[in-house]
Amino acid sequence: MLLEKIQHPDDLKGLSMEELQNLVNETRETLLRKISHHGGHNGPNLGMVEMTVALHYVFNSPIDQLIFDVSHQTYIHKMLTGRAEAFLSPEHYDDVSGYTNPKESTHDLFTIGHTSTSLSLANGVAKARDLKNEKNNVIAVIGDGSLSGGLAYEGLNNIVEQGTNTIVIVNDNDQSIAENFGGIYKNLKELRETNGQAKNNFFEALGFEYHYLEEGNELTALIDLFESVKDKKIPVLLHIHTTKGKGFKFAEENREKFHAGGPFSLTTGDYLNSSSQKETYNSITTDFLMRKMQADPKVIAVNAGTPMLLFNKEQREKVGKQFVDVGIAEEHAATMTAGLAKNGAKPIWAVFSTFMQRSYDQISHDLALNDLPGTILVYGASVHGMNDESHLGIFDIPFLSHIPNIVYLAPTTKEEYLAMLDWSIEQNEHPVAIRVPVGSVKETGIKDQTNYAQYFKNHVTKEGSQVALLGLGNFYSLAEDIALDLETEHNINATIINPKFISGLDTVLLDDLVKNHKLVVTLEDGVLDGGYGQTVAGYLGNKNVKIQTYGLEKTFHDRYSASELLSENGLTKNNIVKNILNSL
Amino acid sequence: MLLEKIQHPDDLKGLSMEELQNLVNETRETLLRKISHHGGHNGPNLGMVEMTVALHYVFNSPIDQLIFDVSHQTYIHKMLTGRAEAFLSPEHYDDVSGYTNPKESTHDLFTIGHTSTSLSLANGVAKARDLKNEKNNVIAVIGDGSLSGGLAYEGLNNIVEQGTNTIVIVNDNDQSIAENFGGIYKNLKELRETNGQAKNNFFEALGFEYHYLEEGNELTALIDLFESVKDKKIPVLLHIHTTKGKGFKFAEENREKFHAGGPFSLTTGDYLNSSSQKETYNSITTDFLMRKMQADPKVIAVNAGTPMLLFNKEQREKVGKQFVDVGIAEEHAATMTAGLAKNGAKPIWAVFSTFMQRSYDQISHDLALNDLPGTILVYGASVHGMNDESHLGIFDIPFLSHIPNIVYLAPTTKEEYLAMLDWSIEQNEHPVAIRVPVGSVKETGIKDQTNYAQYFKNHVTKEGSQVALLGLGNFYSLAEDIALDLETEHNINATIINPKFISGLDTVLLDDLVKNHKLVVTLEDGVLDGGYGQTVAGYLGNKNVKIQTYGLEKTFHDRYSASELLSENGLTKNNIVKNILNSL
């Protein structure tokens, strides 16, 4: 097998065209074998096989510097840069991350997992090269989906302005995670349909030398194109049409389904273990919003490039104009939400915690400063969310809860969640964010009648003394576990509080607690620094009560086991009970 | 005077062309009279006189909805929507803010002070209109400078996608605050030079119906254009060439100087009280960076559209390629900084605290996750920074200090600042941010020899007992004042600590303090929630010591007096001394 002999991209240089084509076939087969067993970003990698081989054949990594946008399409790149074992041997499948990672290889310049960053990174890398008077090529590979992010546009602008060697490759497979949305995609379509000759050309308008390649899965065509632009002194843009899922018919036929996912059958194209019909917080949200939309044409859901969070394709067709996918453009989603709310619509913006990070100023300056009643649904904000260091959802509380006017809520059950969501959509006072619970659905069967316009009013679920436990959102059940242990094992009747509100304190309650409690314990499912517990500690610091705050260390935790990480951070019932007893 | 009779834009509808032209002249004269005495955004408003009159003549605000990007160009709009008095009567000059403000008028849809938001807001407003089946025009006015921000591109994309009435006006005066940078500006230039007929057209490429108007300061041409697109069912883009500073020759001739500024002489064009040669933290930075750059070609300063923060025009020419203005594109600035650092350059990104808000994910995901040694200089992070609610610099500590790997420093003197800056540029470990001091320069005359690679080591400047005062950055001198009062008036020998590090705690010191202190007091020049003091309180909460945390309430404070705001937030020596005495 040729692939087994490739330790470095230099090993490609001496291969014949026939051998290179064999390598293409081997890598695609290797890829299919791994992803069908292991899962991953399936379609994006299948489409990139030929391009990656051609890139490493023509350019000289790591002297020539390759930067892949999002970097979820770099499995072949990893195979060709000394990491083939992680794709050939099942026992080594987890040796590599799903993204580029400088800790794995010098051929990976950056850890990248969010979209639209590659061009700005390349612009910096190229500028540093120029300052050092070096001469290598800087190559950025960006998918068409990532072009919807404003940062990509800023990158394009500045690459042209800089004016020196930077090779921008637009890998156009006519698909984001789901369909593409936005004016740019009409132009990409025109360009594809005219073999790059359309009158209007977005890239030429910005000042790029532009090259179109229709056969983006043809090895020799790719090699010819790359050789023609290698070492150019000016920025060039290569618009290359590839097929997402190339070489696996089920993936070619259903590109949304095969963007990413777990193990699948090579013969039927079905995902294994995917037919769960169980209720989830996602499915609850979908059902609720569809009912709301039907009842009120002003209810509208907004999403930035991850529509399946709310609606599958069929559901999207059903809700029609009451759903907008703005492309991978969280900034726009946030600011558009402000515009919608201002003009009397009832917008709900659904966003993963990790991607919400792209919109701080839009939340602050557009939504919060204008104090507009939009709803943000924050998904995956938990230690039990995505666990790659580039996709953590645990920074949302410091990020969001200290922005003025934002009411940030943490439900603990289905009933609370739906009551909060309904209240938020109908209220007209403030921007409201809801930390969508992560984990299995908890149902009480009792309708939540809370008036959430009583801002920051906590719910005391069990009155006790000595110790008060504030269990925020996902960690409310941990508070219950601790209280039960304290009661049964140590005869301590702890107070249990469901704070419900993250972005403000129930100061009346806290003042009251001080009277018959020696210790207040806060539990939150996120980083400790800048979080909820520290705000409580700041408020109580000058009073006659001790405070223990529990949360995660401020680090980019990577591919962790949640239970181990919780344990390392002292977030276990036994540890907390021990600390409580020590403190009393 | 006609202007005095205009209470509502409807009052324009019956005027003849001659009267409208008289109104143009009156408003420009009124504008010049006010700004020459009061200061403000001079050039942008002078250029918008004719366009604003034409907009209100043709469209029907507030039924037709006008949204102005940044909204610093809305002085004429305010004059024509019931607020002329605030421009005619010096005693009413401060009745209006420098931006649109819904609290002032229903003709102002949003409070806006940051750039590139108008198109996304308009997209939301228009979508809500469509959901409600209403038919009004939605008009967004955006300057060419604001087009460099990625959010503007996301807005353009989505307006085209939506496909219904939205009138985008690009007010092209060929100038941002300073010069424009980026590929888009080459295209705008081509379009201006060809009367809109250039082969490449950025806006048409994105799918807009495009109209060019060369005479953007000609009232009748503007009226004709607006009437021709009013009530269109599809998005249109009007590219209108105006003259920044129109009608005041000094402003026309020096557009950067007259972007904004204090009172000036109408006869000489000189700013009053502007010739101060005193050393400031800005001038210190400029001098230091110019020396560093001369000594090391790898040192490079990055800025997003506010270059005068570091270098005036002459200085920019001098530093040449070692300075990059990326346009009003803070996201790109942050991510480019990561690229520069990765490839061996020594980047320093200078940014106002309020505008840094646009780049959370770029700081987190690109710079911090990759742990790259770029330097961020954070300007105006203080209660004494800009004081309009849309330009506050007081949220930086919760925003920045909880991102992993970021070393955020708070210098208290010139010597500390320069030592930190020099160390940061030369170190190779982490991203470092420095909170540039605000206020007059404090000089000790003694070189700071601190090794800042000893992360989070605080400096105990005075050892005492009972009370420990942690005075962060700008508020270190307040700690000194309090200590002096405690000593001289109350015979208490307080410990004074200069924390220097914002993003981490000196836990050895804090543990030690507990032994002979009853109270720890934190003082920070920013919002309290999510800030430094709360992190200290969280750490000390379970120990035998009380904590008092001082900072500002989490609110969008507006056009405040700093001393009053400090007093309202208990941030006075007398109040804090009183609280300390109560607590001991």
Automatic annotation (TrEMBL), chains A, B:
Which keywords does the record carry?
Isoprene biosynthesis, Magnesium, Metal-binding, Thiamine biosynthesis, Thiamine pyrophosphate, Transferase
Kindly name one Pfam family recorded for this protein: Transketolase_C
Cofactor(s) this protein requires = Mg(2+)
Q: Among its keywords, does the record have Transferase? A: yes
According to the UniProt record, one GO cellular component term is: cytosol
**Which pathway does it serve?**
Metabolic intermediate biosynthesis; 1-deoxy-D-xylulose 5-phosphate biosynthesis; 1-deoxy-D-xylulose 5-phosphate from D-glyceraldehyde 3-phosphate and pyruvate: step 1/1
What EC numbers are recorded for this enzyme?
2.2.1.7
Q: Name one GO molecular function term.
A: metal ion binding
Where on the tree of life does the source sit, at the highest rank? Bacteria
A GO biological-process term: thiamine biosynthetic process
What quaternary structure, including any partners, is listed in this protein's UniProt entry?
Homodimer.
User: Which protein family is named in the record?
Assistant: Belongs to the transketolase family. DXPS subfamily.
**Would you tell me the protein name for this molecule?**
1-deoxy-D-xylulose-5-phosphate synthase
Q: Which organism is it from?
A: Candidatus Enterococcus dunnyi
